[in-house]
Design goal:
The structure is a homotrimer of 227-residue chains. Chain A has 227 residues and is α+β, with helices and mostly antiparallel strands. Chain A is built from two helices and twelve strands. The first copy, chain A, has helices spanning 2-16, 34-92; strands at 97-101, 107-108, 115-116, 121-126, 137-138, 143-154, 159-165, 168-175, 183-194, 199-204, 210-211, 218-226. Chains B and C meet through helix 1, helix 2, strand 6, strand 8 and strand 9 of B and helix 2, strand 1, strand 4, strand 6 and strand 9 of C.
Amino acid sequence: MNFAFCLLLSFCSLTLGQEGLLETEGTTENEPCFPDLCKFIKEFAVMKVKLEAVETKLNESESQVLVLKEKGEALETKLKETESQVLVLKQKALKVVFSAGILENAAIGPIKKPKTLVYGRVITNVGNAYNQNTGIFVAPVRGMYYFSFFYHAGGGHPVRLRLIKNNNSVVEITDHKTLMDGADNGGNAAFVELQQGDQVFVRLDANHHVWGNGYITTFSGFLLHQI
Amino acid sequence: MNFAFCLLLSFCSLTLGQEGLLETEGTTENEPCFPDLCKFIKEFAVMKVKLEAVETKLNESESQVLVLKEKGEALETKLKETESQVLVLKQKALKVVFSAGILENAAIGPIKKPKTLVYGRVITNVGNAYNQNTGIFVAPVRGMYYFSFFYHAGGGHPVRLRLIKNNNSVVEITDHKTLMDGADNGGNAAFVELQQGDQVFVRLDANHHVWGNGYITTFSGFLLHQI
Amino acid sequence: MNFAFCLLLSFCSLTLGQEGLLETEGTTENEPCFPDLCKFIKEFAVMKVKLEAVETKLNESESQVLVLKEKGEALETKLKETESQVLVLKQKALKVVFSAGILENAAIGPIKKPKTLVYGRVITNVGNAYNQNTGIFVAPVRGMYYFSFFYHAGGGHPVRLRLIKNNNSVVEITDHKTLMDGADNGGNAAFVELQQGDQVFVRLDANHHVWGNGYITTFSGFLLHQI
């Protein structure tokens, strides 16, 4: 029996030799083969320990993966917030800018009725909020806008220009009639909050005049920031 | 002994049959049970290989987790930098804007002492840096600011307006007295760097005058950017 | 033989006792040791199940790591995009601002040839795009710029100032000669798109004059936004 069991182990040793399992170095048929089984049991014990180590490491790895997942989700959330803030900053950089001068090289007025000045020589019109055919700027978005306007006029008639927001005067320029001074200049400017669709333009009062000229009687504006 | 050992393995085979371990198909009490042990040893060898494969894969997985951790930390650091840059960009978008006109429809001056002009008709005052009771703008933050001011005045007295930063003149407007010209206009503007708390206002010189009017004698400013 | 095998297992039990393997509580030399082998086989079955569980968990963990890797790469890509957008926003915040006044407290002109006005009193010059020795502003980048200029002049000669972009007039100010009005003021402003290297300055026409003064005849500009 001893011999037969030994044979079995020897056979197994031969077939499994390549994996280095149960190798009985120097064993002969006459020597007892019990140490092989013992070695086998030892190997099993080693493997058990290894498996436990693997289990422990795997658990650690799993919990690290979990932590990474949570961190990744937190990062994703923060990145989304940052992206939307960048989008808002980019939108705030919406460009609305114009400058234009009166096209005709002639007197505008005096006439009996107030008149919206049409600045037909466009210098700049980013965003096309200013209409060079009507002289009217229409706010494309709610925001804080800046407008400036300058005039030149002869002294033969008084001057009164009003920067109008919808139907209300924001700032004005005025000059008296004088036969002693050939011409005068003036300007004004203001920051105005506008709602989307608000109209801003320069109105010449009835019985007043201004000298048109693409270069000296001008109207400018820009969107400082959205609200 | 052989028989007894065989019995044991058969018993074990029966109890462990559900896991497919050491099943001895067609084994009878009379047949030798050594092949079962051999199969067991083979299974052990297979398991050993599997365990080694698992160990290898786990090591790879662990090193990937480590790489992910480092990448995650690098991403976190970069995201924090980006977030703080976005915050700076948002802060740079701090809004300080005002426009105001002199409220009284009357001459201001001439008087014996210089006088800070009080523009009591507020058109815009985002950030409340301009005080409509004193006429003084106080810089809420260090930055680059723009100021413009325009006047209208009759010809009976000279005009001198100074844009004052703390106690120093930045830019000015002046006009002579003339009995021949009923009125004049003027304006000026400048970009000025201000420290937090710096005061900016328009001063009328002694013995000079200006025509107050909510619409034509105005003062405007805005924060171009923080520094 | 039975006795010898039992001895072997007992010996193994003793040597592996610390790992808790094959412990035969209460076993004596006279009791049969087969239950130990049975226990061993059971333990092996348990271990096999554990290994399978470990394999399953490892596969899950590996696929989660793979998902994390992909997510991490996606986050990295998005973060890079956000970073470059923030960079663009920061670059858009490039600061180019200047304000200067004519240094000499004297008349400039009239002379026979047109003359570039040199505003030698620098109030602000962020970015050094304005040259106080030549009076010329050179656009450091392509963008939308704003320029304003104001003058004061006596009435003895006419005034004509042109805001020149390269060789073209953008906006102008003009005033007549008058012996009846001691002095006049004027200003103008415009938003102008400039290419990098474009030159902007104020030109005084031949036979015209302006009153130099660091405070009242001024030139300002700033980069509204890059294009």
